[in-house]
Each structure stands twice: as structure tokens, then as C-alpha cells.
Amino acid sequence: MGIITTEELRIGYGDQTIVDNLSVSIPRGKITSIIGANGCGKSTLLKSMARILSPKSGTVFLDGKAVQKQSTRAIAKKMAVLPQSPEAPEGLTVRELVSYGRFPHQRGFGKLNDKDRDMIDWALSVTGMSEFADRPVDAMSGGQRQRVWIAMALAQETEVLILDEPTTYLDLCHQLEVLKLLEQLNGVEGRTILMVIHDINQAARFSDHIVALKQGAIVKEGTPEQVVTKDVLREVFDIHAEIVYEPKTGKPVCLTYDLLEASGGTTNTLQKNKQHA
Question: β-pairing, 252-259 with 239-245?
Fold first, then answer.
């Protein structure tokens, strides 16, 4: 059994159903990426797994126990969640933000003890942010701020780390820094990483397991080699992709792609309009 599993999950907003009857298992100690087109239900599924969004029906299990039957503090000791584009209060220092990760472990008036301070120092060190500990978070670059938020999640001392689009708005260098950090945390610390990510090649390179969604349903799940294929990408993204294999890692790479004619792409529409002009 995976560390996170769902059974017949139905999720939506108001009368609209986004995810319907979805069952999936997230493997323990691996990096899992959820991919799919905009609006397919990736973030909605992630929020439900993280107990941010309650499902209309079905169940999410964490370590075999239904998350809705566990307290917020109990969940926070097992699972750290990094939402999309988080914002820190103005003027908060890096160390102060990272210290928030210790909240689930504090008692009484919430004063930091030696264990808390050790975990904060470790989280700052492993993310390469120790030298910036006393600087304001809002003075950091985008990549550095993302590292600070990851450090806060690490200070929470959980086995599972959930991230919703952790590379959004970052340049290529900072994207790679963040993904390599997650890879290191998985390889060295054994953390289970679950993330939503848009870039197919990044998902293939850094994931052990990929779940491909379309309209709230699973099209394919498995290894990068099983998921990043012409047929799956055609089904999920309505594209014709050319797939090669990177010689160093052996992972699949989407070398180039084009719209399917049947998808009514912009180029075809423009050509038809020109013909009728």
C-alpha cells in the first residue's frame, strides 16, 4: 500500500465535479509527479490529499488512516504542504518563517526548545539558506524564497512533502536548483515527495512515478518510461510528441511537439480563416 491512497474520490466546487471516482496510490519513499493540462484537476486532487479541500465522496488515506478522521496537528506531523506561490508576512526573517514549521511539535506557549532550534538550523543548512537566516524573506530572489519555504516544510519534520507547482515563475537555473534539492531530500533523507508540475521533461527527469490526468481521471500512471510516451501525451495534452531517451539518465525526453490537427489548433484556425477571407 502507498503512503497516500485515495478510494473512489469525487471532488468539486459547488455543483461542478472536477475529479470523479478516482483511486490512486502514492508510493512511499519515491518522487511522484502529477501532470496534465490546465484545469484537469491536478491541484484539486493535491488539495484533497493534503486535507485542504474536503471531497464530496470517497476517502483519502495517510498511512492507512482516513485523513478526515485525524486531527490537524496529527496530519501536520506526517505531511508538510507547500502551496502554489506562498506569501510571507512583510518583514519576516528567513529564520522566523522556517521556525513556523515547528508549530505542530510545540506545546504550551509555543516556545522553541533545543530540538526545535536544531531542526531549524538543519533545515536552513540542507537548503543552503543558513547565511541568509537573518535577512527578510521579501528581500530574497524567487529561487531563494522557494528554498526558504521548503526549509520551513523540512523543519516540520514530516515523512511526506507535498508541493503544488514548486517551479512556477522561476527561471531555468532556479527551477533546476529546487528540483535537485527535492531529489537530494528524497535520496538522502528518504522523504516521500508528491508534486504537481507542468514541465513534462522535468517530471520525467526527477520522478520515480508519474500520474497523468485528463478531465479528473487517470489516463496512465507508472514510471517515466511508461507515462512519457507518444500515445499518453497525445491522449493527455492533444499533442503529437517526439520522444527520445537522454543517454546519461536513460529517461524519456519530449524533444519537440506539435498540435494535433483534430484539436483545432490556432495555426489551423488561422489558415481556415484566411482561406475564407
Answer: antiparallel
- Between CA 37 and CA 260 the distance in angstroms is 15
Q: How far apart are CA 25 and CA 27, in angstroms?
A: 6
Alpha-carbon dihedral angle through residues 42, 47, 50, 55, given to the nearest 10 degrees:
-110
CB 241 within 8 A of CB 256: yes
Report how far residue 54's alpha carbon sits from residue 211's, in angstroms, rounded to the nearest whole number. Answer: 21
Q: How far from 251 is each of 189, 194, 227, CA to CA, in Å?
A: 23, 19, 11
Q: What is the SS3 assignment for 136?
A: strand
Query: Per residue in 92-122, is it b (16+ CB within 10 Å) or e — as a string?
Result: ebbbbbbbebbebbeeeeeeeeeebeebbee
Crossing angle for the helix pair 142-155 and 172-189, to the nearest 10 degrees: 20
Q: Please write the tens of the pLDDT for every residue from 179-224.
A: 999 999 999 989 999 999 999 999 999 999 999 999 999 999 999 9
The reported pTM is 0.88
Residue 64, SS3 per DSSP: coil
